[in-house]
Amino acid sequence: MSGSTLQRHPFHLVDPSPWPLFGSMAALTTTMGAVLWMHAYENGGLMFGFGFACLLYTMAVWWRDVVKEATYEGHHTKAVQNGLRWGMILFIVSEIMFFFAFFWAFFHSSISPGIDIGGIWPPKGIEVLSPWEVPLLNTLILLLSGASVTWAHHAILAGQKQQTIISLIVTVILAIIFTGLQGLEYVEAPFSISDGVYGCTFFLATGFHGFHVFIGTLFLTVCLIRQYFDHFTPSHHFGFEAAAWYWHFVDVVWLFLFVSIYWWGGQ
Domain named Heme-copper oxidase subunit III family profile: which ranges (predicted)? Predict the structure, then answer.
């Protein structure tokens, strides 16, 4: 190999890709479509659906390329994996800041309720949900799923493919049950997102958490499929690590939601 083509560093210089440009256009179409749809413009929903479908497609093919680079082409060296880990850590930190805004709004309104809501919390006329029914059950389900995803991690480190598959199946099933119970709670809730600051903060905080649970479920399902096809080894499984970190983040956020919004905020 000549000196001009010899790589003298451990980093991966990616090939030119159309997905960043395509993904940005899809994201713009999705957001514009959502705004038009919410304001009842004709074909706004169609624009939103088209943009969201393009966004999902971009995610699938872009991550397909990353998996190919990592698993089949061997480009993800230790240095590259370390960079990806820091990237995932910073992403989770940004997600913490995202939820921090909702908790700030909730505590700002509940610790010192204004006269426009009667000076009390929960506001007068709001019938709150009992924290000891579906919310407590969902808490136990998420904690159990956190244990099962840790089981999967240890199984990967031990090179036990069957144990990893079983534990990931258990985790995904628990995640689906959580989402179903959350949806049932929304249907039966005696208030809506339009019921003042309580309904707004409740549904925004728990709803975005539910969306993160949905994303995490897809994340873990992809890891399950990849494990079936032997993509992970005890020393090369960052894709699963990222999913596990994300899932533990979802668990912790739910614990804060349960304690603050369901339990303390419902007193």
Answer: 7-266
Residues in the chain: 267
List pLDDT tens digits, range 206-249: 999 999 999 999 999 999 999 999 999 998 899 999 999 999 99
Cβ-defined contacts of 165-173 (< 8 Å, 24+)? 165/224, 165/227, 165/228, 168/220, 168/223, 168/224, 168/227, 169/224, 170/145, 171/145, 171/220, 171/247, 172/217, 172/220, 172/221, 172/224
Enclosing H/E stretch for 224: helix 196-228
Q: What is the pLDDT of residues 3-43, one digit of tens each?
A: 456 677 778 778 889 999 999 999 999 999 999 999 989 99
Which residues contact residue 179 at a Cβ distance below 8 angstroms, ignoring those fewer than 6 apart? 210, 213, 214, 217
Name which of 170, 180, 172 is nearest 243 in CA terms: 172
Between the alpha carbon of residue 97 and those of residues 87, 119, 216, 244, the distances in Å are 16, 28, 18, 19
At the top level of CATH, the class of 78-263 is mainly alpha
Distance, CA of 250 to CA of 256 (rounded, Å): 10
Q: Is pTM beyond 0.70 here?
A: yes
Domain ranges in the chain are 17-75, 78-263
What kind and span of H or E run contains 202? Answer: helix 196-228
Place of tokens 């179409």: 29
- CATH number for the segment(s) 17-75: 1.10.287.70
